[in-house]
Design a protein that fits this description.
By secondary structure, the chain is of the alpha/beta class. The chain has helices at about 30-35, 35-50, 85-100, 135, 140-155, 180-190, 190-205, 365; strands at about 10, 25, 30, 60, 75, 105, 120, 140, 210, 230, 235-240, 250-255, 260, 265-270, 270-275, 285-290, 290-295, 310-315, 320-325, 340-345, 350-355, 370. The chain starts with 8 loop residues before the first strand and ends with a strand.
């Protein structure tokens, strides 16, 4: 397959399609080896990648076992239903998965299964489905569901949309949905220097960059059971809207730091629950004070060169971030072929300094964005 020019593999069934009790695999009884099958299966494929091709292995796998992360795998939540309940369940499922040490988790944005022929929601849809009927049929609130799911998908380790719809382009869900999807697609690309650098940190430490709040705030007892908010790297607190028709939601902001509303730049003290406006085009998103976030120039594909357009700083505490870059394709990084730029924000002096490789050529004054409110 790889010799035909394909870059990666989608392994849609990395588990034996047999009940373990009574089955017998080549390595031994199913009751003993069934659970580790995804590990040895993806290991074999990864070994073939390393032997036969020069670019990095990338395997989309339906199943995993501890250790699968070293095989270039990303794992998704299988053939989920296109419902609000299935969407809601993705958040804690993903956090449970990444807490096990496997960082690259994803799901089918919008759900994979076929849409209901008719679905009339309890509340009036926030997006008009009338010009998307060829795609969504009688599922009146599906453009709204898809938009909310797409917003959440922007802050997943792997953003991917897939499913059994007739069309799946951003313009396929109606004229009201299209600008929302475009907005978040552009935001994802803008955040690519931040996201790629988080991948480098995971490579160094093994720690996931999508994680439950207890991993960042272990001393705050109020976050122990929060399953619908999470951190995306050290900067972003993400709180998706998962209720149909909702235009606001409550969010708990962990104690010990101030937080900035990403959209309004309003600064709020942590350790409290607040209610935030969340019209259909707004994903509730907060940034921790002291965060240093590199932002990239506008691109349409990661195959295009992207420069650092801004470094956005959220004052209120000292902060650090390391920008990482390499060729994005080969294993040269294993031999030291990469660049890092270490950024430091001194909150008392209100200055940003950097050391290491040059990440931009413009004067620092043109790159630095300091958030104020």
């Amino acid at each position: 397959i790889l010799s035909k020019g394909f870059d990666s593999l989608w392994m849609d069934e990395t588990e034996p399609d047999l009940p373990p009790n009574g089955s017998y695999l080549s390595v031994g009884p199913g009751t003993r080896y069934f659970n580790i099958y995804p590990l040895v299966h993806t290991s074999a494929m990864y070994d073939g990648f390393r032997r036969d091709v020069k670019h990095r292995a990338l395997i989309l796998s339906r199943d995993a076992y501890l250790g699968s992360q070293r095989n270039g795998t990303m794992v998704w939540s299988s053939d989920i239903y296109p419902t609000w309940d299935a969407f809601r369940r993705q958040i804690p499922t993903g956090l449970d998965f990444t807490a096990s040490g496997m960082a690259y988790w994803t799901n089918d944005v919008g759900g994979w299964q076929y849409l209901s022929l008719v679905h009339h929601p309890a509340h009036a849809p926030l997006l008009d489905p009338s010009d998307a009927r060829e795609n969504v049929g009688g599922y009146d609130d599906y453009p709204e569901l898809y938009a909310r799911w797409f917003e959440y998908g922007t802050f997943l380790p792997i953003m991917r949309t897939h499913g059994s719809r007739k069309y799946n382009e951003v313009w396929s869900y109606g004229k009201q949905a299209e600008p929302i999807l475009e907005k978040y697609l552009k935001l994802r690309y803008q955040l690519m220097p931040y996201i790629y650098s988080l991948g480098y940190k995971t490579y160094q430490t093994g720690a996931p960059f999508m994680r439950a709040l207890f991993m960042d705030f272990p001393n705050d007892p109020k976050i122990a059971d929060l399953r619908d908010e999470y951190m995306f790297g050290p900067a972003f607190l993400v709180a998706p809207v998962t209720e149909q028709g909702a235009t606001s939601r409550e969010i708990y902001l962990p104690a010990g730091t101030d937080w900035y509303n990403y959209w309004t730049s309003e600064r709020v003290h942590g350790g409290q629950t607040i209610k935030v406006d969340a019209p259909v085009d707004i994903l509730p998103l907060f940034v921790r004070a002291g965060s240093v976030v590199p932002l990239g120039s506008a691109i349409e594909s990661t195959s295009q060169a992207q420069k650092i357009e801004h470094v956005r700083v959220y004052p209120g505490a000292d902060g650090e971030f390391t920008i990482y870059s390499d060729d994005g394709n080969t294993y040269g990084y294993e031999k030291g072929d990469f660049k890092t730029t270490r950024l430091h924000w001194d909150d008392a002096a209100q200055t940003l300094t950097h050391e290491g490789a040059s990440a931009w050529t413009e004067p620092d004054s043109q790159i630095l964005e300091r958030v104020t409110r």
